[in-house]
Specification:
alpha/beta, globular, 8 strands, disordered N terminus, 13 helices, single chain, binds iron/sulfur cluster, about 10% strand, TIM Barrel
Length: about 350
């Protein structure tokens, strides 16, 4: 069945993405399966250990439409987590030793329940991460968020794919760089990223094209020098994240004829030392409807928890998740290439 037919039949974009990945996989039989490479390296089954992080994707609504977005988010998306589903997330957090609640989207702040949810999670004394695109902090109706995040000691993890305006804007849209710089300055004035402050500001870099990220520590050093000298901006750390071959980035790869080239790079850069720290081994990801996945990437592919049909958060107890096998596919080579990659950057020091 063609992708166009799937779209005409009203299939979700995630269905189409999954179908497209399957078609690409069939075309590229020379590429090994991730599972086979894992087994060959002494990991017959990839299993979750103890759950430490609950990643909550609160919806696909966003004020931006970045080229590499793996969520396919944008201003016209209407998928948003409801209060009822947030309450189920809270129940799971309460029942568990989950240390970190990692909130992502879309632009998470655009979900009307965001402030209530953050307040409730902080009452439970868990660490909260807001994956913030920075530009939302100056959008009409959202300018109170910097102070809100500071008041609740939320870690801000902010995308800034380059310290050069042209590169940043080419990936994230015109004017994004300047707005991001203004937002970072504002966060600094509230104490974020400052020495001696408990407010953590982390930046995220991902390559603009089909290449592996450079060395995280060296790049962090360059970012610090550039942002400090040119704008007086301070931050705590930089995470480098490999572009995953899914969603909009997969579209780009296929359209430009570079899918096989990029996958070959990821496969040939497989690093068995990265397997131990894969984020799926300590994380579960919940989508805006409350369905559970091994990670945010599997969520985008609608690849459910291994050995199970789709599981809803309302049907699950924390003990059902610890020790479970993890669903993998060829996209997982993005997490094991080079220094490894996850939502908190490189998995290994180089
Ligand atoms: S800001 Fe983030 S969620 Fe929004 S379109 Fe860009 S990458 Fe996607
Ligand atoms: S994409 Fe990465 S984090 Fe997700 S299941 Fe595969 S290896 Fe784990």
């Amino acid at each position: 069945m063609s992708l166009l037919t799937l779209l005409r039949q009203g299939s979700s974009l995630a269905d189409v993405d999954r179908q497209r990945e399957i078609l690409e996989d069939r075309r590229n039989t020379t590429l090994p399966q991730f599972q086979t490479v894992l087994a060959g390296n002494g990991f017959p089954v990839l299993q979750r250990r103890k759950l430490e992080t609950l990643q909550v994707n609160v919806g696909k609504l966003c004020n931006q439409t970045c080229r590499h977005c793996h969520v396919d988010a944008g201003p016209d998306r209407r998928e948003l987590m409801t209060r009822e589903t947030f309450e189920q997330c809270l129940r799971l957090i309460r029942e568990s030793d989950v240390k970190t609640v990692d909130i992502t989207g879309g632009a998470p702040e655009m979900n009307a329940q965001f402030e209530w949810f953050v307040t409730e999670v902080r009452k439970l004394n868990r660490h909260v991460i807001d994956r913030c695109n920075l530009t939302i902090l100056s959008a009409p109706g959202y300018t109170h968020f910097p102070q809100f995040l500071a008041n609740h000691q939320v870690e801000v993890v902010a995308s800034l794919p380059c310290y050069l305006e042209e590169n940043c804007d080419s990936q994230r849209g015109n004017g994004v760089f300047r707005k991001s710089i203004e937002a970072l300055k504002l966060l600094n004035t509230l104490g974020y990223g400052k020495a001696g402050s408990s407010l953590t500001l982390s930046l995220v870099y991902n390559p603009t094209g089909p290449a592996l990220p450079p060395n995280q520590q060296k790049l962090e050093h360059s970012y610090r020098e550039q942002l400090r000298q040119r704008f007086g901006i301070e931050f705590n750390r930089l995470y480098t994240i490999t572009n995953m071959p899914i969603s909009r980035f997969l579209d780009d790869l296929i359209t430009s004829g570079r899918y096989v080239e990029y996958m070959t790079l990821l496969v040939s850069s497989f690093n068995r030392d990265a397997v131990d720290g894969l984020m799926c081994r300590a994380t579960v990801s919940v989508d805006w409807q409350g369905y559970l996945y091994d990670c945010d990437f599997n969520q985008m592919l609608e690849l459910p928890l291994a050995n199970a049909p789709r599981i809803h958060i309302s049907d699950v107890h924390i003990d059902d998740l610890n020790g479970q096998p993890i669903a993998v596919g060829r996209h997982c080579f993005g997490c094991t290439a080079g220094a490894g990659s996850g939502c908190r950057g490189a998995l290994l020091e180089e």
